[in-house]
Predict the structure.
Amino acid sequence: QVQLVESGGGLVQPGGSLRLSCAASGSISGFNVMAWYRQVPGKEREVVAGITRYGSTNYADSVKGRFTISRDNAKSMVWLQMNSLKPVDTAVYYCVARGLIDLWGQGTQVTVSS
């Protein structure tokens, strides 16, 4: 079974940028959608961005124009470029492979604070 490992989280000031990476232990070509979700303690997980195997993308309204999702099937990698970060973006971010079953990474913490 493919495993997903996120990295790139950390502490950043408001207005700053971070780039999250998701490395898969196997091929992601078979997953129609690769996505990033986030979760704040006490709240449900919410989808942040998704990208199909053909490169079509969609974003939550709250991150449109600030975040960019990308994937490289050959490298089995997915990225989330996050710009103009706000304190409300603080959350644990998860990489998700969506197929017949959904696979989740362990998450990476993003904290936006001055």
